[in-house]
Automatic annotation (TrEMBL):
<dbReference type="InterPro" id="IPR039420">
    <property type="entry name" value="WalR-like"/>
</dbReference>
<protein>
    <submittedName>
        <fullName>DNA-binding NarL/FixJ family response regulator</fullName>
    </submittedName>
</protein>
<dbReference type="InterPro" id="IPR016032">
    <property type="entry name" value="Sig_transdc_resp-reg_C-effctor"/>
</dbReference>
<keyword id="KW-0238">DNA-binding</keyword>
<dbReference type="GO" id="GO:0000160">
    <property type="term" value="P:phosphorelay signal transduction system"/>
</dbReference>
<keyword id="KW-0805">Transcription regulation</keyword>
<feature type="domain" description="HTH luxR-type">
    <location>
        <begin position="152"/>
        <end position="217"/>
    </location>
</feature>
<dbReference type="Pfam" id="PF00072">
    <property type="entry name" value="Response_reg"/>
</dbReference>
<dbReference type="InterPro" id="IPR000792">
    <property type="entry name" value="Tscrpt_reg_LuxR_C"/>
</dbReference>
<keyword id="KW-0804">Transcription</keyword>
<keyword id="KW-0597">Phosphoprotein</keyword>
<dbReference type="GO" id="GO:0006355">
    <property type="term" value="P:regulation of DNA-templated transcription"/>
</dbReference>
<dbReference type="GO" id="GO:0003677">
    <property type="term" value="F:DNA binding"/>
</dbReference>
<dbReference type="InterPro" id="IPR001789">
    <property type="entry name" value="Sig_transdc_resp-reg_receiver"/>
</dbReference>
<dbReference type="InterPro" id="IPR058245">
    <property type="entry name" value="NreC/VraR/RcsB-like_REC"/>
</dbReference>
<dbReference type="Pfam" id="PF00196">
    <property type="entry name" value="GerE"/>
</dbReference>
<feature type="domain" description="Response regulatory">
    <location>
        <begin position="3"/>
        <end position="119"/>
    </location>
</feature>
Amino acid sequence: MIRVLLADDEAMVRAGVRAILGSSGETEVVAEAGDGREAVGLAQAHRPDVALLDIRMPRLDGLAAAEEIVRTVPGTAVAMLTTFSERAYVARALGGGATGFLLKSGDPYELIAGVRAVAGGAAFLSPKVARYVIEGLGGADGGGRLAREAAAHARVAVLSPREREVLSLVGAGLSNPEIAARLHLVEGTVKAYVSAVLDRLGVRNRVQAAIVAHEAGLVAT
């Protein structure tokens, strides 16, 4: 079972999300919080597989809570659950270590798939969010895009062919077990490759690596 901490200041939202996740038969909500400070404390106490956080919460907002959970509970993956109208927060959430960004207005199956993905070590962005991120987090001007593509090509040039192959699969959203199966490697070897890729690219997590992969043209569209 995937153990989930759910944080949202609206009880009805929590009830709906809990029901959706429970319907999958593979997810258990082990703790619920109504504000960000409580979410951090419960994450430290329960050490869930996934912390699913709303952005707008009292006492401590979800973005600050996410950063604190990433820092103090490294075994817990963090995903944000919010409205797309708050897309200005996407950059900070991903920069702070979140590996998932899900929309409250999304399909229930998308929510289940997202929690499953981040629990497995992969990144998951709702389609609208993914499009926004790949367009440069709001900077869709042609010159800026060309500059980012050039910078991305320079960054991946230092990777070995196998590391670029792993990066392309990370960019496609595959988890470590899926990459291992695709490349006929053991999972431990894939984890070592992923760690090396993150280090050599100078990024903090798989989402940031995936952005580089897309900008460098390593991911088929």
